[in-house]
Amino acid sequence: MTFQQPSIELSPKVSDEVRKTTCYMCACRCGINVHMKDGKVAYIEGNRDHPVNKGVLCAKGSAGIMQVNAPSRLRAPLKRVGPRGSGEFEEISWDEALDIAVGWLGPIRKSNPEKLAFFTGRDQSQSFTSFWAQNFGTCNYAAHGGFCSVNMAAGGIYTMGGAFWEFGQPDWDHTKLFMLFGVAEDHDSNPIKAGIGKIKKRGAKVIGVNPIRSGYNAVADEWVGITPGTDGLFILSMVHVLMKAGKIDLEYLSRYTNAPVLVNATVGPEKGLFLRDENDKPLVIDRATGELTAFDKPGVRPDLAATYERDGVTHRPVFHLMAERYLDESYAPEAVAEQCGIPASRIRAIAADIARVAFDEAFELDQEWTDFRGETHKTMKGRPVSFHSMRGVSAHANGFQTCRALHILQILLGTVEVPGGFRFKPPYPKPVEAHPTPHCKVTPDSPLDGPHLGFVRGPEHLALKEDGSPARIDKAFTWENPMSSHGLMHMVISNAHAGDPYKIDTLFMYMANMSWNSTMNTRGVIDMLTDKDENGDYVIPHIIYSDAYSSEMVAYADLILPDTTYLERHDCISLLDRPICEADGAADAIRWPVIEPDRDVVGFQSALILLANKMGLPGFTNEDGSAKYKDYADYIVNHERKPGIGPLAGFRGENGDKSGRGEVNPDQLDRYIENGGFFIEHVPDDALYYKPWNSAYQDWAVGMGIYDSPQPYLFQLYSEPMRKFQLAAEGYGDRQPPDHLRDRTKETLDPLPIWYETDQHGNDGFTVNALTQRPMAMYHSWGTQNAWLRQLHGRNPLYVPTKLMREHGLQDGDWARVTSPHGEITVPVMEMAALNHNTVWTWNAIGKRKGAWALEEDAPEATKGFLLNHLIHELLPPKGDGLRWANSDPVTGQAAWFDLKVKIEKAAAPDGLSESLPSFDPIKSPVGTGPAELKWKVGK
Amino acid sequence: MTELPTSTDRKMGLVIDLDTCVGCHACVISCKGWNTENYGAPLSDQNPYGADPSGTFLNRVHSYEVQPEKGHAQLIHFPKSCLHCEDAPCVTVCPTGASYKRVEDGIVLVNESNCIGCGLCAWSCPYGARELDLAEGVMKKCTLCVDRIYNENLPEEDRVPSCVRTCPAGARHFGDLGDPSSDVSKLVAERSGMDLMPEMGTKPVNKYLPPRPKDTVEEEIDILAPLLAPVAEEPKGFLGWLDKTLEKF
Amino acid sequence: MHPAPSVIIFTTLSGLGFGLLFFLGLGLPVVTGMVAFVFYAIAFGLAVGGLAASTFHLGHPERAWRAFTQWKTSWLSREGVCAVAALLVMGLYAIGAVFLGQNWSALGVLGSVLSLGTVFTTSMIYTQLKTIPRWNMKLTPAMFLSFALAGGALLAGQVSIALPLLAVAALVQLAYWKYGDDALAASGTNLGTATGLGDRGAVRAFEPPHTGSNYLLREFVHVVGRKHAQKLRVIAFGLGFALPLVLLLLPFESTMLKHTVAGLAVLAHLAGVAASRWLFFAQAEHVVGLYYGKR
Ligand SMILES: Nc1nc2c(c(=O)[nH]1)N[C@H]1C(S)=C(S)[C@@H](COP(=O)(O)OP(=O)(O)OC[C@H]3O[C@@H](n4cnc5c(=O)[nH]c(N)nc54)[C@H](O)[C@@H]3O)O[C@H]1N2
Ligand SMILES: Nc1nc2c(c(=O)[nH]1)N[C@H]1C(S)=C(S)[C@@H](COP(=O)(O)OP(=O)(O)OC[C@H]3O[C@@H](n4cnc5c(=O)[nH]c(N)nc54)[C@H](O)[C@@H]3O)O[C@H]1N2
Ligand code: SF4
Ligand code: SF4
Ligand code: SF4
Ligand code: SF4
Ligand code: SF4
Ligand SMILES: [Mo]
């Protein structure tokens, strides 16, 4: 037979049309090309022009087609007809749904707006939802940041006016050593992967600090399997070693940080605050003149060493205080090695390697720039060491200080905002002073007195009522957690249930699965949501919830406002919020309906506008009483925060040729769509680095509407706001902490980073650390409804290190009982060798409630999957002092998910049923279950 | 036809960098998406919302732990799809001629309209690269995105496999491994690219780049130690050093 | 490997059927008329039934004819061609014997060779697979052939031939198990070579690529407990060879008894071979299992 091949079609038509929008399978917000066939979504790929993902797409993004077609999508507004938690609903019309909501909300607003608690999840329309809440008049608004990673945000902003999270990035093009602390995935999912790929290609080194060696840590050249919760100690030990060896960037410290700023040493209410001049500018000694001078005077060369004598008191610069603290032998590698689980020799070797790369491999970019003191520099000096960190550091109750410690390390090395180091993305850098302070003054029938959330500068900004009690339902900005910049979403339900600090009427939530994976103490929270008072009424009287899918939380609401999927609505990823900027450019983006919903659903933001219009909320109503906006798209285009500044920065002005500032452009959305769904304005070359001090950048930022005037500032190695809280705890000032919080405030609000062991009370006998990680291919609970993704992670074993497997006689597939001071679960185990010897972990949010997500009740997620959340409580075990202490960071209130300690023992498979425990009754699915087979092909 | 061509004009294939793959499964799902909508029958899923979901995938990412003689255990993410073997046993065993290797580029394909779904080719593949689609009853395998790489309806830069285009870490490379001057061939030469199960004699075209050595920093301490020579032993001395050093500014 | 009933039935029955045809073709025994009809009905029933069973697991049986086209490279194709040829030749030969009382011995010998060839090609489908070291041995065709011959002789009532053939088959069976148990280890393929990571240290499969199941796991990964396998081997050996041998050696006078006993021996043998075949599949470790940390 002669050789013959069939001829095949090598150039089939790919699609009828490509529609470019923004992915929403997670919060990374990559640009996507949606290929359409016959008006249906046929294939989704990354948009090569997009600043975030530059063409690549993660597993979730590619699986979007299974998300927009998921059988779990809600179909119409739902009114609860069975008891809360049963899942029994009746579909109603939007008119009826809005009437019910306004029937609850209208009267509250007239009498006592704080009786509405409006909390939103991980959406990025916070500038809009907070605007709505402000105009409603309640002080009880926040998004999810408090349980997510406020330590990272606040630690960064208080220290350097910008944070890791997705607000900055390593200089991937130049860095030669990249060190990653406690990251499994993070929000910048694709950029981090692309960055790691890029630097590995160059042969740069990656060091992963993480108890678990998977994902990014698996490809790291060095793995530091640290004991959870001890990063601060490890970092400060490296600070010790580097300072001792003089491997620090003195020039950088003197010019750009408050290291040379003089600290008042006079005993009294000013002790520990900065010496300031009459304009309130912190003072330094000028090396050139030896004079006391404002830090920002043109030409000043701040002296790191000089002290200042006045009235017989020696006022010393911050740097002296740092030397005193960190050169202490208690930070020597030998002193911390055991606690951190890292040999002293390794700590030294890593510190030395960092020093080598930062100083021996320093380089310069041929780029002139001028600093805020008016000095022009011929080049930009680069230090190719960069750091990144996320929840592994922040989700501990010492996370705020650890995060500060890490920033101190970067700053000592001079690697922030320099080539090769860590870079901010616009709208950052932005000093604390350029952020709002929290507002909580409620007036019936009126808007709140200002934005809810912000950055306190001292006790005067706490959200307290006249009697000193918390103004907010979540007790944010109180002495328990004074710097809680993102609120405390994880405390809302338990406080509302306890009526502490007061009772509320309506809990209105959006996009947060608070009866399941986003809550601590899941069972307890379910009980709180369903608890009734002596009259048989629910303790939390009304619950309104908006979700797009049949999640566990749906069952616990009285009224459901069904959202669209991400391909069916307008969204705005705004510079006023959490934009998609890169260090090289300011960028924002939209989503637009690339398909029309086939259900009776409305985009949540549009639903809020409908509600606002029905209630005639200020901000949404014209003078003549007519509605300002008909829907969210209308708002995105026409809303102005300040004249010329609106939700979108691109294509402003009548001709669409203005960026940042400019009049409303009615065609703005079309221009975005033509441009691929996003807008980017590049930072000029001379403004690319040294942004906080770079006049060219400052001017550019003003032009873009990021600030109203240039805001150069110093990095705050020493945090004055923290010192102010300490001073109060020492008895100064008229706002005083309650006595039981004095000592803790003094200790934990230290203005220079410290490490302290988190509260171990009640942990006797519980010695094993238990963690969760995000799987790269799943997004919290949403991934499970996706037919393709759930095949990858349909259940989640508890990964147990080899040593503990042996000790407990366990083998893969065996079951173990895992106990914490708070609860018990029984789960399947699997061995992992590349794991800290005393740590167990599992994937986050794989376990599901039977009946949710349109899955069949025997789905493995419900039978074998489990949540670690059952073991974590929002409160620490009672100490017998009559008080309940929150399982949170004492500075920010950040939920301390990763402080969990457990013990494990081998168990028989529960009841011989092979089901994880605890198991819950099924909830009734409001949408039924999915089909038995999928053969998805749009263009047959 | 089931005879293998004596030689192919080019040897198109993938090079997978095990040093960089973070195990994100992006390539798995992107492949599923493209190949569900394109070449041949859709990749079906059985019981997709039920107790035992399963489906056809052409690319899957494993992970392995390696315990070196000394030092920490390592974890390696390991993507695997058809290796487009030069001596492809899956082709020669096929009784119908449905499986064949293309002369132009060496891509191994299944002609779905001739396939009887006997499964023998999957039996003969050492790598688990073929999966029988339950809904369609035909054998599915990686096509090297033959309907992308020459597709004139795609922009030039997109004429690469879906999995390669999507890989966020850039761990997947595509090119002609028969051409020693191609980027992929050079990469294989530089990084000692390897074959899987060479003893099977399949002569895979796809190559794997092994992970670089890990956890070596402590071994370099002799070189690194001088970097940490103390400038002072205690805070006072340190401030003295500081003063002296600042003089030089 | 997943012990699919269709392949077990197919190889067991067709092996026996073609074994019987082999002897009939050689004129052992020489039969004509009604007796021949019964013999051929049994032989064709087994061979064709087996072949038919083999189409049960096809995704597209309606295209099965295509399987004859690739005889140049494919053992499965060769088997198809060989089987059809054998059946055609032996069909002609049978027509001669049943209806015309003729024994065209040249045609018979050709049919015999083709019949045995069919068994050989069947065995080669498995033997050729390097991916399954337990099959990739010369002992595999030896086993298929010796079983077919012993079974054929038994069915053909050739006691004196069956006795030594059964003994040989029994020995081959023992050897097959002995070498088969070590085959994977001896093949040199392990997770180290499968991943190319072997020279870095001990390799262990960690997370599977998916928690859901897939075709590969269903088809290739089948774990038989050691004890269970041991028990089945005793049964297979006892029924397949030991019992028939004993039965054949029993000194019966009456032909009635002789026939009953011979019938029993055939049934025992069939059951034993089926059990052996079940083990043949169920115990075969495909190297793909290594990737999944399974065998
Ligand atoms: N044990 C443990 N628990 C944790 C964590 C951990 O690390 N370990 N992490 C914590 C952290 S950081 C976070 S951020 C939380 C996250 O927890 P959640 O914010 O609760 O996360 P999701 O599961 O994504 O739930 C969000 C809800 O949004 C819904 N949704 C999805 N898309 C849309 C949409 O387009 N519109 C609307 N209206 N709804 C939509 C989903 O259906 C889901 O019900 O979990 C926390 N919980
Ligand atoms: N694919 C995907 N991407 C996501 C999400 C998702 O659900 N899926 N969720 C998004 C959200 S809401 C968030 S908040 C981010 C969070 O992104 P990450 O910060 O990556 O969050 P986690 O997955 O919780 O990972 C925390 C990591 O810290 C490690 N760790 C725990 N304790 C310690 C410690 O004490 N020290 C050190 N060094 N490491 C420690 C854990 O092992 C784990 O690897 O991800 C976002 N991106
Ligand atoms: S990281 Fe993935 S899921 Fe998140 S936005 Fe980007 S593509 Fe979508
Ligand atoms: S997409 Fe790239 S990094 Fe992700 S699993 Fe595949 S090869 Fe690895
Ligand atoms: S990897 Fe398997 S399917 Fe692909 S060519 Fe090689 S043997 Fe055939
Ligand atoms: S399953 Fe199809 S491609 Fe594979 S050997 Fe059989 S006929 Fe050939
Ligand atoms: S080349 Fe194409 S078919 Fe092959 S694994 Fe990659 S995406 Fe899948
Ligand atoms: Mo989060």
Which keywords apply here?
heterotrimer; B: about 250 residues; alpha+beta; Alpha-Beta Plaits; two-stranded antiparallel ribbon; C: about 300 residues; mainly alpha; 2 domains; about 70% helix; globular; binds ligand MGD; binds iron/sulfur cluster; binds molybdenum atom
Give a description of the structure:
The complex is a heterotrimer of chains A (940), B (249) and C (295). In chain A, helix 4 (126-136) runs parallel beside helix 18, helix 9 (231-244) packs antiparallel against helix 12 (333-340) and helix 12 (333-340) packs across helix 13. Chain A is α/β, with parallel strands linked by helices. Chain A is built from 26 helices and 35 strands. A seven-stranded mixed beta sheet of chain A has the order 5-4-25-24-23-6-7, sandwiched between helices. Chain A has five domains: 18-66 and 570-600 and 640-685, N-terminal domain of TfIIb, CATH 2.20.25; 78-151 and 445-567, Rossmann fold; 163-429, 3-Layer(aba) Sandwich (Dimethylsulfoxide Reductase, domain 2), CATH 3.40.228; 718-751, no CATH class; 768-907, Barwin-like endoglucanases. The radius of gyration of chain B is 25 Å and the shape is elongated. Helix content of chain B is 22%, strand content 18%. In chain B, a hairpin with a 6-residue loop joins strand 8 and strand 9 (139-141). Chain B has a three-stranded mixed beta sheet with strand order 10-1-11. A two-stranded antiparallel sheet of chain B has the order 2-3. A two-stranded antiparallel ribbon of chain B has the order 4-5. Chain B has helices at 26-37, 89-92, 120-124, 146-149, 162-166, 183-190, 221-224, 235-247, and strands at residues 12-17, 45-46, 54-55, 60-67, 74-80, 99-101, 108-110, 130-132, 139-141, 172-176, 207-209. The longest helix of chain C is centred in the middle third of the chain and has 29 residues, at 159-187. The model of chain C has no long low-confidence stretch (mean pLDDT 94). Chain C contains eleven helices and one strand. With 295 residues, chain C is mostly helical. Helix content of chain C is 69%, strand content 1%. The complex binds ligand MGD (2 copies), iron/sulfur cluster (SF4) (5 copies) and molybdenum atom. The site of one iron/sulfur cluster has 14 residues of chain B, from helix 1 and strand 5. Residues 21-27, 61, 77, 79, 167, 169, 171-172 of chain B line the site of one iron/sulfur cluster.
